[in-house]
Amino acid sequence: MAERPEDLNLPNAVITRIIKEALPEGVNISKEARSAISRAASVFVLYATSCANNFAMKGKRKTLNAGDVLSAMEEMEFQRFVAPLKESLEVYRREQKGKKEARKDKDKKADSEEQDKSREEDNDEDDERMEEEEQNDEEEVDN
Amino acid sequence: MAAARLSGSENRLVSLPLSRIRVIMKSSPEVSSINQDALFLTAKATELFVQYLATYSYKHGRGKEKNALTYSDLSHTAEECETFQFLADILPKKILASKYLKMLEKEKRDGEMREDNDEAEEEQDEDEGVGAAVGS
């Protein structure tokens, strides 16, 4: 599958924001510098992936897992990332777990005969001006 | 939601889009599949990398401007710092075209000198039968 060049680039706006938040206020970043950092980030992803994949292959696995990525960071001499990454991973896993449970609850409600009743209950909690929009949405969904 | 936007990316766990990160990862030929945690970690690591590259280059840059991060700060980092050396090829140093032309001319002259030296050495080797020290 051929990727277009843009697909291997990361969104400029996000990269710019990350840079700006890292540097002291008032520091300008030249367009060239921004573009260079963006390219460097893409190369970093490729390098990290390749490195992580080596660890997966050593473990005779075909799926890259979290441990492989963390090992890759050490290998690439970015040990400083390991602790913050582990912390973020904890939060991420909790978030994902919460989302899963929220979806399960939603599914339970949808399956039950109280489907329409629960939608009305949700509407009551919203602002009054949202109600009209909600009703319109409901019509579309029913169709 | 508005509150998260106002305070920037600090409230969100990761700003880089996982879908795009996945596309880049999958472009690597040997990779079959990527577990969701690994995808998240790669995205997060990339953000940390961007921050690190930017701040390091700003601190160690030899640019004349103190309130700007320039391309030359970045290419300097790629050349000088071992951790960032994997970027050396994509962040080459830039020189003026006139300097480059002078370099080419110098290399050409050095090359011709080396050829002359080699010929002289070959004659020497034939005489001595042992490799002589290379003179420049």
Automatic annotation (TrEMBL), chain A:
Ranges of biased composition (kind: Acidic residues): 121-143
Keyword Transmembrane included in the entry's annotation: no
Major localisation: nucleus
Pfam families in alphabetical order: CBFD_NFYB_HMF
GO cellular component: CHRAC; epsilon DNA polymerase complex
Comp. bias intervals (Basic and acidic residues): 93-120
Domain called Transcription factor CBF/NF-Y/archaeal histone: residue spans: 9-73
Region described as Disordered: spans on this chain: 93-143
Entry keyword set: Acetylation, Coiled coil, DNA-binding, Nucleus, Phosphoprotein
Alphabetical GO biological process terms: DNA damage response; heterochromatin formation; leading strand elongation
GO molecular function: chromatin DNA binding; protein heterodimerization activity
Localization: Nucleus
Listed InterPro entries: CBFA_NFYB_domain (IPR003958), DNA_Pol-Epsilon_Subunit (IPR051377), Histone-fold (IPR009072)
Subunit structure: Component of the DNA polymerase epsilon complex consisting of four subunits: the catalytic subunit POLE and the accessory subunits POLE2, POLE3 and POLE4. Interaction with POLE4 is a prerequisite for further binding with POLE and POLE2. Heterodimer with CHRAC1; binds to DNA. Component of the CHRAC ISWI chromatin remodeling complex at least composed of SMARCA5/SNF2H, BAZ1A/ACF1, CHRAC1 and POLE3; the complex preferentially binds DNA through the CHRAC1-POLE3 heterodimer and possesses ATP-dependent nucleosome-remodeling activity.
Reported function: Accessory component of the DNA polymerase epsilon complex. Participates in DNA repair and in chromosomal DNA replication. Forms a complex with CHRAC1 and binds naked DNA, which is then incorporated into chromatin, aided by the nucleosome-remodeling activity of ISWI/SNF2H and ACF1. Does not enhance nucleosome sliding activity of the ACF-5 ISWI chromatin remodeling complex.
PANTHER family: DNA POLYMERASE EPSILON SUBUNIT 3
Protein's recorded name: DNA polymerase epsilon subunit 3
TrEMBL record, chain B:
Pfam family, one: CBFD_NFYB_HMF
Cellular component annotations (GO), alphabetically ordered: CHRAC
Localization of this protein: Nucleus
Stored SUPFAM superfamilies: Histone-fold (SSF47113)
InterPro entries registered for this protein in UniProt: CBFA_NFYB_domain, Histone-fold, Transcr_DNA_Rep_Reg
Cell inner membrane is among the record's keywords: no
Transport recorded as keyword: no
Transcription factor CBF/NF-Y/archaeal histone domain ranges (all copies): 15-76
GO MF entry, a single one: protein heterodimerization activity
Comp. bias (Acidic residues): 115-129
Major site of localization recorded for this protein: nucleus
Protein keywords: Acetylation, Coiled coil, DNA-binding, Nucleotidyltransferase, Nucleus, Phosphoprotein, Transferase
Region listing for Disordered, in residue ranges: 107-136
One of the GO biological process terms: chromatin remodeling
Function: Forms a complex with DNA polymerase epsilon subunit POLE3 and binds naked DNA, which is then incorporated into chromatin, aided by the nucleosome remodeling activity of ISWI/SNF2H and ACF1. Does not enhance nucleosome sliding activity of the ACF-5 ISWI chromatin remodeling complex.
Subunit structure: Heterodimer with POLE3; binds to DNA. Component of the CHRAC ISWI chromatin remodeling complex at least composed of SMARCA5/SNF2H, BAZ1A/ACF1, CHRAC1 and POLE3; the complex preferentially binds DNA through the CHRAC1-POLE3 heterodimer and possesses ATP-dependent nucleosome-remodeling activity. Within the complex, the heterodimer with POLE3 interacts with SMARCA5/SNF2H; the interaction is direct and enhances nucleosome sliding activity by the SMARCA5/SNF2H and BAZ1A/ACF1 interaction. Within the complex, the heterodimer with POLE3 interacts with BAZ1A/ACF1; the interactions are direct.
Name used for this protein in its record: Chromatin accessibility complex protein 1
Lineage: Eukaryota, Metazoa, Chordata, Craniata, Vertebrata
